[in-house]
Amino acid sequence: MSTHARKLLIAANWKMYKTPVEALDFTRTFIPLAGHHAHAEVVLCASPTLLPTVVDAVRNNPIRVAAQDMHWLDQGAYTGETSPLMLKALEVTHVLIGHSERRQYFNETDTTVNLKLKSALAHGLVPIVCVGEHLAQREAGQTADVLKLQVSIALEGIDPAAAQPLVIAYEPVWAIGTGRTATPEIADEAHQLIRAEIAKALSPELAASTRILYGGSVKPDNAASLCCLDDIDGALVGGASLDPNSFAQIVANSATA
Ligand code: PEP
Asked: Which helix or strand (DSSP H or E) is residue 119 part of?
């Protein structure tokens, strides 16, 4: 059993996959396998079309449900967007903010990440803020600068007294969906840097209590080595979270780290 300083969080990012019927199939298989693990919080990040179905399906066990994005405003003329009030009304508890696919394809910027983070905290949603460098940035030796900038802008103007629920996900863009993972050493180094940046922007106490997840081609066979080093507090899992057996295995393997 893990003796980790912070409770692990293992999140599934289903991206733009699954219909409601497929989501229900997943939960029916997944809940008996991993729904009652005590060593980790488990969160399913689903498309807005799936949220009511998934919230209902996990109602009597500790699995939580997240949106994959949200607008920062409560309401308005923003066609196609989802507001924090809408998520709260559906009993969604968590929200991904600034996933690299949002940054790459939908003009998400550090500034909108900051607005969304403030809004999520104000509405009592647990924010999972994603940061990470591109391959060219890593190869140019810019990883530390990129991560510091992403974290410092995301946390600009955040009241430390309200930031306790904050979760950060370190997702090197070159490792997402590529089958190429960061080595545990690379991930641990990035996590230490992110933790130091949280200490600067918020407080050393918050830096010590904030969970920092690793994301990027986490699979059942690398989960134990990648998601639970001293400074790594769980995983954000894309492709391998679509299958309930594979995701349950990741949750189980994270306990052996
Ligand atoms: C992700 O979607 O956040 C992710 C890490 O994807 P994958 O596990 O497929 O690399």
From this structure: helix 110-122
The 10 Å Cβ neighbour count of residue 165 is: 16
pTM as predicted: 0.96
Among 128, 180, 232, 236, name the best residue to mutate to test ligand 1's pocket (greatest count of ligand atoms within 8 A of Cβ).
Answer: 236
pLDDT at 19 over 70: yes
- Distance between CA 169 and CA 67 in Å, rounded? 15
SS3 129: strand
Side-chain-facing half-sphere of 97: CA atoms under 13 Å: 32
Instruction: Tell me: pLDDT of 153 over 80.
Output: yes
Catalytic residue among 39, 94, 99, 191: 99
CA dist 50 and 21 (Å) reads 9
Maximum distance among all Cα pairs of the chain, rounded to whole angstroms: 49
Write out pLDDT tens, residues 33-80: 997 888 899 999 999 999 999 999 999 999 999 999 999 999 999 999
CA of 197 to the centre of ligand 1 (A): 24
Residue 211 phi, psi (nearest 5): -85, 135
